[in-house]
UniProtKB/TrEMBL annotation:
One of its GO terms (molecular function) is 4 iron, 4 sulfur cluster binding. PANTHER family: 23S RRNA METHYLTRANSFERASE, RADICAL SAM CORE DOMAIN-CONTAINING PROTEIN. InterPro entries: Aldolase_TIM, Methyltransferase_A. GO terms for biological process: rRNA base methylation; tRNA methylation. It comes from the Eukaryota. This is Uncharacterized protein. Keywords: 4Fe-4S, Iron, Iron-sulfur, Metal-binding. Its cofactor is [4Fe-4S] cluster.
Length: 145
């Protein structure tokens, strides 16, 4: 039904959908998951789960578990491996990056199944000049993930 609406209004085809930014998917995983299911349902929009991404700063390790059950790819907005720097960049951060990383790994493993062997997990980093853009920041991130 949704796809017919898009086609009948001659809207350009969507190539990808990313849940990111205000309204973090990890802060509302129940509804983000339901939206992802609706978008990937062949009887509704029939969007490919490979082209749908749920992004989160990872407010809690449990948020990763909830989002890992949704169709689509996961993206973690890490921004910095150093806990103090990440707290400056993500003021709402309540957990150490290591706790979140381990929670993400556990969530992906717990929800791994035959249909999701090829599921990607992306780590997003916004580089800010003079804040987290130095070579040592990149080395910290590489060692961290």
């Amino acid at each position: 039904m949704g796809l017919r609406m898009v086609q009948s209004n001659k809207l350009p085809p969507l190539r990808s959908i990313v849940f990111m930014g205000m309204g973090d998917a990890g802060c509302n995983p129940k509804h983000a998951t339901e939206a992802a299911r609706c978008l990937t349902d062949p009887q509704r929009f029939g969007f490919s789960r490979h082209r749908l991404t749920l992004s989160t700063v990872g407010p809690t390790p449990a948020a990763f578990h909830a989002l890992a059950a949704a169709p689509g790819q996961l993206a973690w907005s890490l921004h910095a491996a150093d806990a103090d720097l990440r707290k400056r960049l993500v003021p709402t951060a309540c957990y150490e990056p290591e706790v979140l990383r381990d929670g993400l790994a556990e969530a992906v493993e717990a929800h791994r199944c035959e249909s999701s062997k090829d599921r990607a997990v992306m780590v997003a980093v916004t580089l800010l000049a003079g804040v987290n853009d130095q070579p040592h920041h990149a080395k910290e991130l590489a060692a961290f993930v």
